[in-house]
Design goal:
With 1006 residues, the protein is mostly helical. It contains 38 helices and eight strands. It is 58% helix and 2% strand. The strands form four sheets. It has a two-stranded antiparallel sheet. Strands 3-4 form a two-stranded antiparallel sheet. Helix 23 (593-601) runs antiparallel to helix 26 and helix 27 runs parallel beside helix 29 (760-787).
């Protein structure tokens, strides 16, 4: 019995408030309170039932209990009915006031003629119980009270509206349909001023049209499912709808008549009245559709020919579409201004009219235009026509917003957003153009793929025609012809042959940035002169890296061997990819022998003169463009130019430069008609690919504001275009070029070439590294300027960020692989120098005065290493440079150990060994790699074994394991001392001292 709780006595018929208090106190803290019950049902359910009951059934329902009666008296219940009438929302208070004044006049006239009586309605009036106090407005007039007025509640305000509108609703049931309007009009006037004609077109001095429309609107809200004032409300609503249709028909006739007369005031009154009684969608409003149907713009489309936008050769010239859009925009502005003056802002007639113009006029024109463009053999025509058509159609947005702004200025109470918002104006064009988006975006991606494929194949064909042999090539070209081929196809800056490679790179990137700032014209126009350069088809043409001067970035002017410029039909004359080279093979940043000599003769160039020459970049229309030779001189002396910090504007430290002697060596080595590795990469190809990607990117950016599904597709296409460019530039150009360069470097054999301090393949590979680094910098600039604002750069999962990282890693891996092969080639060259320049008695000199300086082989080897190590500075990252230096040091130790073990070294020659090792140590110390410096310090100590004369002291040195920091074991040092010229004399003594051995005493020969 413990599990049963004791029952608590409950007072019968307790009030709901006391029951709620008791249930709240008894409720557990962890459990929600029990719902308040009225009878067997919760109070919330009773409230829901009351909200669905017609007003006449409410008294019968609430008479069952006082709790229900209190719910029915609550303002929350009546607030929903009052809000459903929409009197405050739609400004219908004037109707109630007019009705109340009319009823007071009629009641006063009736009382003056008859004794006062109490009228009883046949229908059930709402009220409380029979014994309850009568409520004002519900069938019984309140007694005269001398107390102060009480603030109205939602119940009293609804009761007033209910009593005023109920007679009008009952009149709908007893009146013929064609007499409903005239019958309703009698309720709004006193007997002294009855309406003479209920027809709205004849109403001039009676009830205004707007008031009649508001009355019908209020009556329609009164007979709605949300209010249900009478049991037969649905039947009465049908009769009211019939009367509203007749009223609207009369308003249409009045509007048409006023439109024919040009009476905007009459049009506005009819339009506002018709919109007041309209209960459907704004786009289907009959009066707005009828007005738009009669506009002339929809019936004069034959005077514009979409095919006139094509020239005789199939190119695009949008002058015809300019004329077409001019007429359309003029019609939109003219009729739009009238629409916003006549129609209510909520009707959105301007939006409906502009949508119809966009779909029926502009859309049809664009469809015919794109159909013809799609039939062209060159896909570039379709792509350009699509973007240009959208750009032209976008002018409608500006006109619509200008119309709304003009209306807002005429009438201050109307805001431009009330007439048409920017989003709705843009949606007019977006929705019209949606049908063309799928095909355009797919075609844009395919076109870019084809362009990149064509560029890569064209570059591969050029490399295939290049001969690797110094005498003749596969095509039978002689060495002179091969050199001419190099001169004609080397149209990119030379970094190693310049006085300041870092300055050359900055000049290239600065000019490239200026090029990216040039706008890309989407809408093609007639060819015309712009700033002294011919702009064809609104597209800036690529003239190679030599055309990075922004003043020379023009159209088809200045064609080289391949022809230049972007024609209206696309890439080149036949839609093929072009690349322009200078006719005489001169390069923009190349430094020749004459430039080096001139630099030596005049080494004190003034900064002001250099700035004057730098200002030549700014010449445009009035002056001629700067010559290539002039530009060469300017860039040759670029190391004299001060470098300014972009952040602080202060002068920064100059970049490391290449000496004039080194420059001569590089020029002479690179002038040989051999297999030039720097030709495996091209800044022209990189620039061409970036331009081939930038133009479609700018076209797609035209649609960047698209909402919804196509907005996501546009952003995905923008990312895909950049990813395709990275793939083509990285996989098809950079990686292939570095792979071929690495393969050719491995085939280099120093013995087949003259002894020199320069390794031609490695020098050319360093030039290749500079070019690759410049290409990566160009890609970074292009990414920052054109793509960074489309993506989240911090999102490491973004496809563009990941692909860009992969591109950079692939370039680093290619450079690292090439440097590994280059290091091997360099050390082979160093070993070859040591072998060829070291005489047999180099370290076993004859008696005479000693030369304590480094040997010739050591000096030449150091020159070779220094030159190649300095050339790599500024072209790769610090980490890669340190790895390269470390690898050079490790391999140099192995080469030197092998070289020492090949020699016969006397006591006097030992001093030469020490001098050479000290020279190597000095060179390695300049690399600033701690681990390599430590190894070479131990190697330098190893040279002392060749100058120790006493054999026992030598043995003690060999046995001292701490002398070389653990780098060399005694066995290793033992191998080195075997190269002494007196080894046979001291061998027994050294062995006995080291190992305590005596062959005569300890060994028995059998």
């Amino acid at each position: 019995m413990d599990k049963f709780a004791t029952l608590e006595p409950v007072r019968l018929y307790a009030s709901s408030g006391a029951r709620l208090l008791r249930s709240g106190t008894a409720a557990s803290k962890n459990n929600p309170p029990a719902p308040v019950l009225i009878g067997r049902l919760p109070a919330d359910l009773h409230q829901l039932i009351l909200s669905f009951l017609p007003i006449p059934d409410v008294p019968a329902y609430v008479r069952s209990s006082r709790a229900l009666n209190s719910i029915a008296k609550d303002d929350k219940f009546w607030d929903a009915r009052w809000s459903a009438l929409g009197i405050e929302k739609h400004g219908l208070e004037v109707v109630l006031d007019t009705l109340e004044n009319a009823q007071k006049g009629q009641l006063g006239a009736t009382r003056s003629m008859q004794p006062p009586t109490i009228s009883v309605s046949n229908d059930d009036d709402f009220g409380d119980f029979a014994t309850a106090e009568p409520v004002a407005g519900f069938g019984v007039q309140p007694p005269l009270s001398l107390s102060f007025p009480i603030a109205p509640t939602k119940r009293t305000t609804y009761a007033r509206a209910h009593n005023l509108l109920k007679p009008l609703a009952l009149a709908l049931h007893s009146t013929a349909p064609h007499l409903i309007l005239s019958t309703l009009s009698t309720f709004f006037v006193s007997p002294q001023s009855l309406l003479t004609s209920p027809a709205p077109q004849n109403q001039t001095d009676g009830l205004p049209l707007r008031t009649r429309a508001k009355a019908l609107h209020l009556l329609a809200l009164f007979l709605s499912p949300a209010v249900q004032p009478l049991r037969s409300w649905s039947t009465l609503r049908q009769a009211l709808q019939t009367a509203m249709d007749r009223f609207d028909a009369g308003l249409l006739a009045a509007f048409d008549s006023a439109d024919g007369r040009g009476d905007e005031e009459g049009m506005r009154e009819a339009a506002e009245s018709s919109w007041e009684v309209w209960t459907g969608n704004a786009a289907e409003w009959e009066m707005g559709k009828m007005w738009a149907e009669k506009r002339e713009i929809f019936y004069v489309q034959g005077q514009w020919d979409p095919l006139a936008n094509f020239t005789a050769d199939g190119a695009l010239d949008f002058d015809a579409m300019d004329e077409f859009m001019g007429g359309v925009l003029k019609a939109i502005e003219e009729h739009g201004l009238r629409a916003v003056r006549v129609f209510p802002p909520a009707a959105q007639v301007l939006v409906s009219f502009s949508e119809r113009v966009a779909n029926d006029v502009v859309g049809e024109y664009i469809t015919a235009l794109l159909t013809q463009a799609r039939a062209a053999t060159n896909s570039f025509v379709f792509l350009q026509a699509t973007a240009a058509s959208f750009k032209e159609a976008w002018r409608m947005v500006d006109v619509l917003l200008r119309v709304a702004q003009a209306r807002a200025q005429d009438k201050d109470i109307v805001k431009p957003e009330d007439i048409i918002t920017t989003t709705k104006a843009e949606d007019v064009v977006y929705q019209m153009f949606e049908s063309n988006m799928d095909e355009y975006l797919d075609e844009e991606v395919e076109s870019v793929k084809n362009v990149f494929n064509t560029i890569c194949k064209a570059w591969d064909r050029e490399l295939a025609t290049y001969a690797p042999t110094p005498s003749t090539n596969g095509s039978g070209l002689t060495s002179i012809e091969t050199q001419q081929y190099h001169n004609e196809h080397t149209s990119q800056p030379r970094f190693l042959t310049s006085q300041n490679p870092a300055q050359v790179k900055r000049n290239v990137l600065a000019s490239f940035t200026s090029v990216l700032l040039l706008p890309v014209t989407i809408v093609p126009r007639t060819v015309g002169a712009v700033g002294g350069a011919i702009v064809s088809g609104g597209t800036a043409a690529v003239q190679g890296i030599a055309m990075l001067n922004p003043t020379r970035w023009g159209g088809s002017a200045g064609a080289g061997k391949y022809g230049g410029g972007v024609s209206k039909t696309g890439w080149g004359a036949n839609g093929s990819v072009y690349r322009t080279a200078e006719a005489e093979g001169s390069t923009v940043f190349e430094v020749g022998d004459a430039d080096v000599d001139a630099d030596e003769d005049d080494g004190k160039t003034e900064v002001g003169d250099e700035r004057k020459e730098a200002d030549a970049w700014g010449k445009s229309a009035s002056g001629t463009s700067m010559s290539i030779s002039h530009l060469n001189c300017w860039l040759t002396s670029a190391d004299y130019l001060p470098v300014y910090s972009a952040a602080a504007g202060s002068r920064a430290s100059p970049s490391p430069t290449v000496s004039s002697s080194t420059s001569r060596t590089l020029v002479s080595s690179s002038s040989a008609p051999e297999n030039k590795l720097e030709l495996l990469l091209s800044l022209d190809v990189a620039l061409e690919m970036i331009h081939a990607d930038r133009e479609p990117l700018k076209r797609v950016e035209t649609f960047a504001g698209y909402p919804g599904h196509y907005g996501h597709r546009v952003r995905d296409t923008i990312e895909e275009l950049f990813i395709l460019m990275l793939g083509a530039l990285g996989d098809e150009h950079l990686r292939k070029g570095f792979a071929k360069a690495t393969e050719q470097m491995r085939e280099y054999k120093p013995a087949e070439h003259e002894a020199t301090t320069s390794v031609a393949p490695l020098l050319q590979f360093f030039e290749l590294v500079h070019i690759g680094d410049t290409i990566q910098s160009m890609v970074q600039v292009y990414f920052d300027k054109e793509l960074a604002h489309h993506i989240d750069r911090t999102d490491f999962l973004n496809a563009v960020v990941r692909e860009k990282k992969r591109f950079e890693n692939a370039l680093d891996d290619s450079v690292a692989g090439g440097l590994n092969a280059g290091t091997e080639v360099l050390m082979n060259q160093v070993e070859h120098i040591l072998v060829t320049l070291t005489s047999p008695r180099e370290y076993y000199p004859e008696d005479g005065p000693l030369d304590l300086g480094p040997t010739r082989g050591c000096s030449e080897a150091i020159k070779c290493l220094e030159m190649h190590c300095k050339l790599l500075k500024g072209s790769t990252s610090k980490e890669v440079l340190e790895v390269f230096y470390q690898e050079v040091g490790i391999r140099l130790i192995a080469v030197l150990q092998k070289h020492i073990k090949r020699q016969i070294i006397s006591l006097n020659g030992g001093f030469r060994v020490i001098a050479d090792l000290n020279t190597y140590y000095t060179f390695v110390s300049s690399l600033k790699i701690p681990s390599i410096i430590s190894d070479f310090s131990h190697l330098k100590m190893l040279g002392h074994v060749y100058v120790v004369e006493d054999a026992k002291d030598l043995a003690q040195i060999v046995r001292d394991v701490t002398r070389y920091g653990g780098a060399y074991r005694p066995e290793d040092v033992y191998e080195f001392i075997q190269r002494r010229s007196d080894w046979k004399k001291i061998e027994k003594t050294v062995d006995k001292t080291m190992y305590n051995l005596s062959f005569k005493e300890d060994c028995v020969v059998c």
